[in-house]
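Supplementary Text 2. Reproducibility record for the structural model of the 309-residue chain.

All settings were left at their defaults, and a single model was retained for analysis rather than an ensemble. We include the record here because the model underlies the residue-level annotations in Supplementary Table 4.
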Amino acid sequence: METVDIIIPAYRPGNEFEKLLDSLSTQNYPVEKILVMNTEEKFWNPKWEDAFPKVKVTHLKKEDFDHGGTRRAAAKLSDADIMVFMTQDAVPADQDLIQNLIRPLQENPKVGAAFARQLAREDCAYLEKYTRTFNYPDKSSVKWEKDTAAYGIKTYFCSNVCAAYKKKIYQEMGGFIEHAIFNEDMIYAGTMAKKGYGIAYAADACVIHSHNYSCRQQFHRNFDLGVSQAEHPEIFAGVPSEGEGIRLVKKSLAYLVKTGHIWLIPGLIAQSGFKYAGYFLGKRYRKLPEKMILFCTMNREYWKKQEEK
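Retained model, structure tokens:
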């Protein structure tokens, strides 16, 4: 039986985090350890370590957190065969999450990563619920480098909201990049695909996870997304994202018309505009002045580290 560790970066975890720890501690496929990389010790509840013996926490300062580096450091603390990375706001939909998520890794030795389906929360906005079904359909799949002709950037899609990685392949690939503003999961998945490994989508492994982002938040997220792609042309240069974004907008527009929610169309147009503006500027961040970059990003700490290099 292959061993599994769960790794969760956390910042100001609240009551929902306790429910997450409880659910992960009682999965039908047992986990060895739950490694929490907690930013700022003052926000941590030490009682969780007593209540959940599998929890092992490492505290770090806010300025030391990095999307790639923090997960990379956590991976070094794990000696399990499979590492499952999650975010603190993703809740398992059932007790079969882990066994369904790791199954593709166990069935095919050339599949190095598998990511879960994300279901919308009850308070999720109507259009965002559709976006969830667009990005996370009910049919499982495995994508390989040869699929870029058909799926473009979707070939490398993988989300550390809930994703499993074979430790042996992870080490072979060199792990997550040390310094990442965002998108460390897709950068790793793309690297892995180019070395001949597959990326599985496990539709029967479900977590409840969604956000109602404002236009401003969408702008900042997509700026950082654009930066991550600009910094890694070895992965993304040949598979631009614009086509997939346009397809989502067209599908969303048709869905709103079909379901009679035409009053939501202006919001769709506004959100799409902010997303594209952020992405456009992020891809061209090297041409922007520092103040503009700091205005656009959602991760100022990243740029401080860039200056220190």
